[in-house]
Specification:
Elements (H helix, E strand, L loop, with lengths): L1 H21 L1 H7 L4 H4 L14 E5 H7 L1 H41 L4 H50 L6 E5 L16 H15 L1
Parallel strand pairs: 1-2
Helix pairs in contact: 1-5, 1-6, 5-6
């Protein structure tokens, strides 16, 4: 049973590591959108066309946005705490299981002592399940915070760029859908500065 727990824990640990290392915002943009979100209609309100297009670099947003930095830092700390707790339980489980098996082979332990050792092993399994759940919850928490952040970014960009640009694209070196962008159209720093200013005002 503990082997399955280790495999499940490693799976969620890998997912969290990927989210925190490969690009917090990028992973959300890359994953399929829920069906309900795909069906949202465009805003009715419109402004006079400017004929201008701008873009935002995702990696710069990931690296420079204060809110993302804070979320990632706290998530890494929680991930490290959970990993340490699971590793301690795993080592304890291995030692107690070996001791239990050796006691059975020796045949000198009383039934009461064997039962007590078996109960200790079962208790560690239950604790490990709880720790695994903590890692699952951490992944969910990161995705929920990512969703909320992206929603705020979309709202801000829509308001801030109204009357300035007709379209604002996203760009990533990892997935270069935009093959060329005039540096004059790069509004990444302006967007980040305003997002950071807004975030500081909320704290």
């Amino acid at each position: 049973m503990f082997t399955r727990l280790i495999q499940a824990f490693q799976k969620f640990n890998w997912i969290v590591t990927l989210i925190l290392s490969a690009g917090f915002l990028y992973l959300l943009l890359a994953r399929p959108k829920p069906e309900a979100e795909n069906q949202k209609s465009l805003p009715v309100e419109s402004v006079k066309s400017t004929g201008k297009i701008a873009f935002v670099k995702l990696q710069l947003l990931n690296d420079s946005c204060l809110e993302i930095q804070e979320i990632v830092t706290k998530a890494k700390q929680e991930k490290s705490r959970i990993e340490n707790q699971f590793n301690m339980l795993s080592n304890s489980y291995r030692l107690k299981l070996e001791a239990y098996q050796n006691s059975i082979k020796a045949g000198i332990e009383s039934d009461a002592n064997l039962k007590s050792k078996a109960e200790e092993i079962q208790a560690i399994e239950i604790q490990a399940q709880q720790v695994q759940k903590q890692m699952e919850n951490l992944e969910l928490d990161i995705r929920q915070k990512n969703d909320a952040f992206l929603s705020r970014v979309k709202t801000f960009v829509a308001d801030w760029c109204k009357g300035r640009y007709d379209y604002v694209l996203t760009y990533s070196d990892d997935v270069p859908l935009l093959l060329y962008g005039n540096p004059a159209a790069d509004i990444s720093k302006a967007v980040i500065n305003q997002l950071n200013s807004n975030y500081k005002n909320l704290k």
